[in-house]
Amino acid sequence: MNITIKASNIELTPEMREFIEEKIDSVEKFYPNIIEARVEIEYDAHHKKGDVFRCEANIKIPGKLLRVEKSTTSFDKAVNKVKDHLKIILTKEKEKQRS
């Protein structure tokens, strides 16, 4: 699977890149035919809400494009929430194909 990562308003360190790749790679076991994954991580410092990290993943599978977006107060929580939601969606897609 090809993973493309884009960062906005945040400097993407090698550790952060590795963390994202590891989490997104882990969803491949739920749907092995993933063609491509595009992940965007964005940092936004709201003056009233505090720090907000937004993670968006676009997963291309044969015949479909799946999109998940989650926002939270920490980088790793945002990535983990996206991974967890992708797990659910990809499992459902796999079940649809079997039926």
Considering the chains and any ligands shown, give keywords for the structure.
2 helices, elongated, 36% helix, single chain, four-stranded mixed beta sheet, 99 residues, alpha+beta
> What is the helix tally?
2
Estimate percent helicity. Answer: 25-40%
- Helix and strand pattern: EHEEEH
User: What is the CA-based Rg, rounded?
Assistant: 14 Å
What features would you describe in this structure?
- Helices cover 36% and strands 39% of the residues.
- The protein is an alpha+beta fold.
- A 4-stranded mixed β-sheet has the order 1-2-3-4, with helices on one face.
- Helix 1 packs parallel to helix 2 (75-98).
- The longest helix has 24 residues, at 75-98.
Can I get a quick summary?
By secondary structure, the chain is an alpha+beta fold.
List the helices and strands and how they pair.
Elements: E1 2-8, H1 14-25, E2 36-46, E3 50-61, E4 64-72, H2 75-98
Parallel strand pairs: 1-2
Antiparallel strand pairs: 2-3, 3-4
Helix pairs in contact: 1-2
